Amino acid sequence: MNISKPNITTSVLTDGYDLSEMFEYVSDTESPISEYLFSEETANNAEMKNGQIDTCILKKCRLSESKIIRSYIRDSEFINCDFSNTDFTETTFRRVRFTGCRLTGAKFVKSLIDDVIFEDCKADYSNFFGATVRNVLYRGGTNKNSNFQELKIRNLAFSGADLGRCEFLHTRLKGIDLSDSIITGAAFTEQDIKGATLSYEQALYVAQNILQIRISDF
To answer: Within a domain: residue 3?
Structure first.
């Protein structure tokens, strides 16, 4: 899959001083957070609606329990950040990379996720219900007990991901390779899983648990 990388020139980034104050400034002025590098900043419970994060790098920042709603995030990287229980409902992500982030309980409901990589993230119990997904890769990490129902997909890949007990109802997985990911306990219908690539063990699991096929030993 050809995923466009974040377009960031690190030499033009300004060191951010107070991420929490920056969110307050954006809320008051509707100005974008643009061309900043933030390291080890804390802005838990931050709020931003209809805002913009553009060409930024955040490293080891904490924004848990925040609300970043109907906003636009592009050409940015989040490295080892904590977004647990953060609400990104109806937010657009374009050319964004999450690496080693904590996204437990995060909400991406009805978001547009375009040219995005989630790598080695802990995203259990996350909610992507109704999201539009274009050129997205989940590599490594865990997404156990997450909601992937009613996704609109154009190019989605999983590589070594833990998708145990995830909900995929009404999400067409045709053409998606799940063979090296964990899908034990995942919920989908026969139509949802039709056309996906599975390992031999996964195919047996689907046959027995989804299609209710009894396999007899010879």
So the answer is: no
What residues are paired with 112 via a beta bridge?
92, 132
In a domain, residue 126? The reply is yes
pLDDT at 21: 87
Q: Two tokens at 50?
A: 């209809």
Angle, vertex CA 16, rays to CA 5 and CA 95, nearest 5: 15
Q: What residue type is assigned to position 160 of the chain?
A: G
Per-residue confidence band for 212, with pLDDT thresholds at 50, 70 and 90? confident
Domain that holds residue 180: 10-209
What gap in Å lies between CA 144 and CA 122, rounded to an integer? 9
- Is 55 a domain residue? yes
Band of pLDDT at residue 26, cut at 50, 70 and 90:
confident
Question: What's the CA gap between 188 and 69, in Å, rounded?
Answer: 29
Q: Is residue 216 part of a domain?
A: no
Task: Give the CATH number for residue 25.
Answer: 2.160.20.80
* Nearest C-alpha neighbor of 76 from the set 116, 42, 27: 116
Q: State the average pLDDT over residues 32-44.
A: 95
Count of domains for the chain: 1
- Rounded CA gap, 100 and 81, in Å? 7
pLDDT band for position 210 (cuts 50, 70, 90): confident
Contact by Cβ (8 Å): 85, 104: yes
